[in-house]
Specification:
This protein is of the alpha/beta class. Helix content is 42%, strand content 16%. α7 links the parallel β3 and β4. α6 runs parallel beside α7.
Length: 352
């Protein structure tokens, strides 16, 4: 098998120059670099990844930390991140935190032990210790809705406020004045932002009831919506995410509600199951593939500059109107059905 000495002899350069070309540890003239790469190809030389990592102090790896890979919100992000990282010459290592800040920190420590070149921290459970660790190690990191761009720090923000405002405006235009909100856990940053936006958008415009679902899954949505329907009797329920909304749809259906005539339900994220829910779910679409792509681009960008200063990206959120929302029956949902039909016709709306 060819070795580095053979490459140096074929390219008529020093062994040190071959090492710099293969490991990217020093700038080399274009002609010299091409000669070395040509020799590598002709001799069928296989680069030793371990030796390359040792020489450079980092591996051709990006880490990606997410909250819950089971959540349909994350697979599209992860796939786009991996594809973009690959285009930049990096493989990807995935870590899952299960919404645990300590697990998130442990995941980052494991990635650092692998000598990753950068980490996408796309989770709400980001402790000060985690951010400080990455800053001290001078490892590029891109965060979701956290951090001001600076050396080794990039940030991607989602316009949650606009998305929630679009939901509320749509419900108000339909005539809803008793609107419930199922929130994700209050200690999640994304949950706080969406709740604040809902409170601001409904202030002095509707009677509202807010309930912490205690999680973000379908089961939590089912339980929380069941209690909300019984206690508050809303004409519409807006939810922190699509999984809670799908749980709310099931809870309303099991209690004999005609959807959406007696109860409108909205979600957030536009996961793959939203369009196939029954009825199809009105929700806020977040550009998940773009989020993953931009995260990988941000990491590669920091590595490609001497200052290593990160970038900031804003992503818009767009309301997608489907069949889970309509004007409340009789203007007041189930409460106004005195002597009315038990199963009024469902309003037909354009599905987009």
């Amino acid at each position: 098998m060819a070795n580095i000495r053979d490459i140096a002899a074929r390219a008529n350069v020093s062994i040190a120059t071959v090492s710099h070309v293969l490991n990217g540890t020093r700038a080399v003239r274009k002609e010299t670099r091409e000669a070395v790469n040509r020799a590598v190809s002709e001799l069928g030389y296989a680069i030793d990844a371990s030796a390359r990592t040792l020489a450079r102090g980092r591996a051709d790896l990006f880490g990606l930390v997410v909250s819950d890979i089971r959540n349909p919100f994350f697979p599209d992000i992860a796939a786009a991140f991996q594809a973009q990282a690959s285009e930049s010459g990096f493989d990807t290592v995935f870590m899952n935190t299960w919404h645990d800040a300590k697990r998130a920190l442990a995941s980052v420590e494991r990635l650092l032990a692998l000598k990753v070149s950068g980490i996408g921290v796309l989770t709400s459970q980001v402790s000060p210790a985690l951010r400080q660790l990455l800053q001290e190690r001078s490892v590029p990191a891109v965060y979701l809705d956290l951090g001001t761009p600076g050396p080794y720090v990039a940030n991607i923000s989602i316009d949650y406020e606009s998305g929630i405002c679009q939901v509320v405006e749509s419900l108000l235009e339909l005539g809803h004045r008793r609107i419930a909100y199922l929130s994700g856990p209050r200690n999640w940053h994304s949950s706080k932002l969406r709740l604040q936006a809902f409170q601001a958008a409904t202030r002095n415009k509707a009677e509202v009831e807010i309930r912490d679902a205690g999680g973000s899954g379908v089961q939590e949505g089912y339980v929380a919506a069941s209690r909300m329907i019984t206690a508050f009797r809303p004409t519409a329920i807006a939810c922190f995410n699509d999984q809670l909304a799908i749980g709310a749809l099931h809870a309303a259906h099991d209690r004999g509600y005609s959807l959406p005539a007696e109860l409108s339900v909205t979600g957030f994220d536009d996961i793959s199951f939203a369009e196939n829910a029954y009825p199809p779910l009105t929700t806020v679409s977040v550009p998940k593939e773009e989020l993953g792509r931009l995260a990988a681009i941000a990491l590669a960008g920091m590595l490609g500059t001497e200052s290593h200063v990160g970038s900031h990206h804003n992503l818009s959120a767009t309301l997608i109107v489907r069949s889970s929302t309509a004007a409340p029956y009789g203007g007041q949902g189930r409460q106004s059905k005195v002597g009315g039909p038990q199963n009024p016709p469902v309003s037909k709306r354009r599905t987009s």
